[in-house]
Amino acid sequence: MKIALMDSGIGLLAAAAAVRRLRPDADLVLSSDPGSMPWGPRTPEDVTRRALAVARAAAAHRPDALIVACNTASVHALPTLRAELEPALPVVGTVPAIKPAAAGGGPFAIWATPATTGSPYQRGLIHDFARDVDVTEVPCPGLADAIEHADDEAIGRAVAAAAALTPAGVTDVVLGCTHYELVAERIRTAVEGGRSAGLAPLVLHGSAEAVAAQALRRIGAAPAPSAEPAGTLTVLLAGHAGDVPEPALAYAEGLLLKAVGPALRPAEAS
């Protein structure tokens, strides 16, 4: 079994780690283009062009499924990716977990990139799944880029700024960018520090576990977390074989991918 994941940068780590936990025997292909980060401010046409290039590089390795582990690419490029790659290659997009957050009925916040915040796409999800719930859209300028470079101080500033815009009464926070899941506990701590007294513990909603499970369903595979950790790891950077980027090793998800399963050397992955 081989699962490919694509993103602009290391935001795909959370979903890749989720796949690794569900199927440690699955081969993984991680395809990204960190030199073009961030994708959020780019035009939809530019995002689609770049997403296609990253997806084609992954598809060349003949995976059984492709996870678009990027909210921006899912918003702008998913129809184009599916039109080109399906049905031969199932394509799984990433949607912010607004529906499960709304199910609790309490007020919640959506942390997302400035381009996604207030977008027709996000507003449509709110209308469809959370029209009767108090929702606050929180833009997080610079956070994805800071996470991409593992810039601890910049992450701290961006998280603090977004937490200051998050109402004190929220019960849940939706992580509307895959990069944000890599610093979920820092986000939790920052938001908890500004919440009203007496509230239940904050619930964070990411997408990694859901897209990993969906990818397995699309190819008819069941979770097998106790399988032998024999899955290989292929890393593609702008279409060229490489290694897990150094900043990725600042996160637990990046360390997991390096530690579990034999990683392919660049010469073997080309």
Automatic annotation (TrEMBL):
InterPro entries, per the entry: Asp/Glu/hydantoin_racemase, Asp/Glu_race, Asp/Glu_racemase_AS_1
Pfam family, one: Asp_Glu_race
Domain of life, source organism: Bacteria
Keywords: Isomerase
Protein name as catalogued: Glutamate racemase
Organism, as annotated: Streptomyces argenteolus
